[in-house]
């Protein structure tokens, strides 16, 4: 794609950072306001899409580190799984931190218990996974341009 | 061409049946008695103090769907990364 | 009544956008139509009192889905203009 | 039909997407058609949960004692939307690979496996 | 805490953990990765065996995900279950055992077979996710949850079929499967949503208790049956199947066989437990029977003329699925007719069920043997193979056992299940048994061809360097060979301990509903 | 009995079949042992008889390739196989089309 105008690129750049703030907000308050893990994660993942528009593919590919998103995704998944597993003395997925409405004032973990924690975990996972999907597919374009890839020979001798 | 016509006719027929099945569920805007959903609406706030009932359902009542869904996303990412992997470079 | 009139309008726009997404021969226009369709879908979800789903649909349908479609269309161009093809 | 308009639109979009799969030859257009089909199913699920005069199923926004729409279909739709995105991404990656190997996006030419 | 009650959750949690942990652990090297793959597959197998034992001893196991206790399906004052419920009756446990045996064998085989590929950490992830999807479909009792697991299974299998992405055919097969599975799963979701909209329940047992015959229910039944029949490869919907099975890596083909059985399980669950007596006449049973007949005959006739070894075996899958559809369809036909059920229906169901077990074992073994031939020689075209029996004695021996079992030669287990099917479907109409017999003959013919051209004959000069495959692969095949031989030598034990409880659980709709709804229909 | 399966119409016993096979194998081995004693390895006797022609060195030249196996069967069933292979076109939309046609037909018939 031809380089876009300066205005569009600047707006995209600004929006990209705004999206992160908005996404984190949606993610953290999912149990009170509309939102939650998926929505927040998806909103944060549009960050990469905006960056691609604002800076162009080559710069994004060279600057953005995949490892970070890999880490997000892995940590999110494992935390989610472990939170689900911790309820196991009762049942898998038992919400062992929840309190009824009457007792749930204050405290570090809100009264919804694992719902809030799992929401954050899923948010991390969705952020990482969706960003990685976009980055990987974008790298796929380059794969077809340069023919410097050796085809895998598999296992035939 | 005959084949394509047959397929399109069958697709239109199937679409008509989908409309039939969709209409047969319940009239729009009037689901009637909904004991399962009314249980969520009545108890989510008091039991686990969740203001947003949809989130409560997603992460607690039907939490297993959510881990399945996270697994779907993870599967798709893994499959995409497998298909578009860098592979070996030419020496 | 007001609500349902707005709803009918949104549904009509949505159906038209979906139709054009399937109708256009040009892939980029088709994908843009699909994005409009997704936005209308999000609006419809909002009218159906489902803001959670509306947020998800707006972010995923209109944002990410469009991005990956456009990436694919870029990747599937005929590889004739090697020198002119500035990377996206 | 006017009262059931969302359901009708769902069926219409499903029909249109299904027909477009057979009418189109371009792989990306087929992917778009599948995307439209899955969107229509999402709309169906959400429309199932609507109650006339119902409010958002969030106590924080709705206030006490009001009639709310059904929340379960919304939770199901969230799952279905993410699944639809995941499958679309995979389908598009496969299309990229098919284009790399076969050099074409015409579905009638991708038929090495037959018989 | 009582681990026995948590077995259904553990059965799903173990492969899930394997999938999530594999990207973390696989950078530690080949040994760690292989240990994870083989170890967790073995643990899954153990869990499924324990689950089978506990289900046989204590009846249907109900597991409420996230409930206050594992068995509390109905919360206070509710007539319907609200949470996701895993419901494991003898049929589910039986299928889970079949699936995990195939998964374990495939994992052992893949350790050496996949060595020369890159991205093996992701392979392990996808393998576990495919196992997870299969097991989830087998034990879940919730229709939307079933859809989620169906999607996991299909996406994982799509990724695995195209794993060798530098082969155009693999990408093509994967793409075709993707198209059909997307369209059909959307149709499935429409049906599930319509059922939810009418009965406001997602639990299959709850819907089964509430369901009444009507237009929408009939349409939903057709949509569900069409989708699941497509996924298990019944005749007019089978065209993706030989492509996919042939192009997947062999260890994965072995697991895909079990995954198609999970779809068959879903089909039977929908017809017997969800609809059951409300099936609405003999139309759907006859559809399933005729699909079975067509699959048997056309699948085997297509297989006879193939000359690519895995594609040939893939077409045999179509034909073998036909036997199960025939047997179970005949059982479905007499579901409301107590006399017919006692006379021949139950035998047909037993035959179909025993055939599921046999089919999973020997077909997986055949795919593994074909993969071993491919590993050793690098050829998959039968025209270029020949004289391998001297070079690869163990592979040859196991291939012969599997080929004899699938053709239904008398001492082997394939014969026993086919005998049960022949004798019972004969009571419905002799023509059904005749088609089944002809299919069996043609199966034997095509495997004689494979055996003669690949393993017998003079040695070819290009194969002088061929060696027997590594021990891991042989061990993977050995597991399945032992399973085939056990079912061969002790058919009565297998039937009375594994198959008959499963068949009883399948026809007992009231029992399935009562396990969740507490006896009150 | 561990090996006996009652089908409702008859029964199947794997051990009696095993015994039958053992007896048959013994019989065959005995018959084989009665064979000609003037057979000697390394002489012309164990050469392949190739209608008097020279036997080819490469093994592949004297085997029937798999594509030619059951040639007569394929020849006799040629019209049948023509229909069947034309059905398996291998085009992606045809597969979806078959699915749609089958489901639509089933729906038509189930509502009738």
Summarize the entry for a quick read.
The complex is a heterohexamer of chains A (157), B (91), C (88), D (115), E (521) and F (112). Chain A has 157 residues and is mostly helical.
Explain what you see.
The complex is a heterohexamer of chains A (157), B (91), C (88), D (115), E (521) and F (112). Chain B folds into two domains: 1-31; 33-86, no CATH class. Chain B has four helices and no strands. Chain B has helices spanning 2-25, 35-48, 53-61, 63-83. Chain D is mainly alpha-helical. Chain D has one domain (5-109): Orthogonal Bundle (Helix Hairpins), CATH 1.10.287.3510. In chain D, 66% of the residues lie in helices and 0% in strands. Chain D has helices spanning 5-23, 27-48, 59-62, 72-102. The model of chain D has no long low-confidence stretch (mean pLDDT 87). Helix content of chain E is 75%, strand content 2%. The longest helix of chain E has 40 residues, at 338-377. Chain E has helices spanning 7-25, 30-58, 90-113, 120-139, 143-161, 168-199, 204-210, 215-232, 240-247, 250-275, 283-304, 309-333, 338-377, 393-407, 413-428, 430-454, 471-489, 491-507, 509-517; strands at 61-64, 85-88. By secondary structure, chain F is mainly alpha-helical. In chain F, strands 1-2 form a two-stranded antiparallel ribbon. The model of chain F has no long low-confidence stretch (mean pLDDT 82). Chains in contact: A-B, A-C, A-D, A-E, B-D, B-E, B-F, C-D, D-E, D-F, E-F. Chains E and F meet through helix 6, helix 8, helix 11, helix 13 and helix 15 of E and helix 1, helix 3 and helix 4 of F.
Structural topology:
The complex is a heterohexamer of chains A (157), B (91), C (88), D (115), E (521) and F (112).
Chain A (H helix, E strand, L loop, with lengths): L5 H23 L8 H19 L1 H7 L2 H21 L27 H32 L12
Chain B lengths: L1 H24 L9 H14 L4 H9 L1 H21 L8
Chain F lengths: L3 E3 L4 E3 H20 L37 H6 L1 H10 L4 H20 L1
Antiparallel strand pairs in F: 1-2
